[in-house]
Amino acid sequence: MEVMYDNLILGNGNEGLFSTDPRKSNVNNNTLVISSSGGGKTRSVMEPNILYSYNRSMVVTMTKRRLINQYSLVLKKRGYDVKLMDLVHPESSDVGYDPMLHVMTDSDLTMLSQNIISCTGDNAEKDRYWQNSGASLFRAFAKLAIHKFGRRVRMKDVQYLIRFIDEEHSDYEDEGTNNIRVSEYCPKEDFERLKKVDPRMYEDWQQYYANADGTRNNIRCIMQTALNTLFTDGLQVMMNKASQIDFKDLARQKTVLFILTSPVNPALHPFANLVLGTMFKELFEYGEEFPDGQLPVPLMVFCDDFATGGRIPGFQYHISIFREKGISVMMLVQSLSQLSFMYGKDAASTIIDNTDNVVYLGGNDPDTAREIGRRNNKPEDEVLTLPVGREYLFRRGQKPLELQRYQIYEDPMYQQLFNEKGMLKRNVSSLRCK
User: Does the pLDDT at position 294 exceed 80?
Assistant: First the structure.
């Protein structure tokens, strides 16, 4: 079956409209949208591309419930399977995500262990020892849980075992009563028992256990802080849902996955990033099953507040092969400085190098203005005073353009769907999350 492609809307008029069909374009469809907070990134760029999606699958991370309420019914009528992963109210999610259910190999477990730490920690070189040690300790307990509970182990099982990390013996003498007490569980004894069955797991455990008490405490704190930050009590509800996300569905049929986070609770963003990191890995591997290496259904990922909620694990490596798999990403940031601060200078440069479309809607960051001016051959003050409603559009292979922003509220389809006869107001109640 021939793959159908939607357009990429980056500005008003034909000059801002591009095909996403790789046969018609020699550039990738990755897009960086830059504007200060409240500058219209969602309204002028992200929302039009959701409105005019008919054939591609989408993953949309956002903090605006309005968009879910507004577009769910429209997309369902177009044949989309609409799924919601609600991190704000996890009980309202259609699907859950338990990262342990996506571990199929030892390499998967190693990647998950590293991602759990990197989603929440500082990856500076001076802390690399503690980061790696925390990841190795988690990997040891996750592998132990697989031995005890089977391959389909859940994260709650791993966390249950970690609760007993300080237990030295399954039975011991209570100094206060001289009675023999029995611990509910002692992981140390299981690690010893399985050391010949799984030498790598035992080595990970020994790398932790052989340290002095102070070092062990630091390693344990690194791991447990990451786990407590990522897997809050509320998110445990969503993680334990019977219906779990299958990322391959995004490539098998038209699907939109809304991932709702909070603008005032940044603790939810690392979990969303962990979801995306797992998704990219699994879809890359799934794409390899097809003769041309591409997913059957193109996928566009919209990342609102891309550089405010932590790093997507391995994103700077993933983005370089998005195009060959039929994946594209739209990243909304407040400034280039923000992107560099979150990902580091080198990783941010890699991300920009692999992004063939840049839309600048204005802002007050001098560093960003200087870079936009350099690319556009304009002085910094002219960039900083770009009139509201105008934009600079950069696309690899063509000269920079100054365009009118896309006016979503003036779009005839938008008006027909959401303004005529009060349709939007009438449908809000039916579109609200469960």
Answer: yes
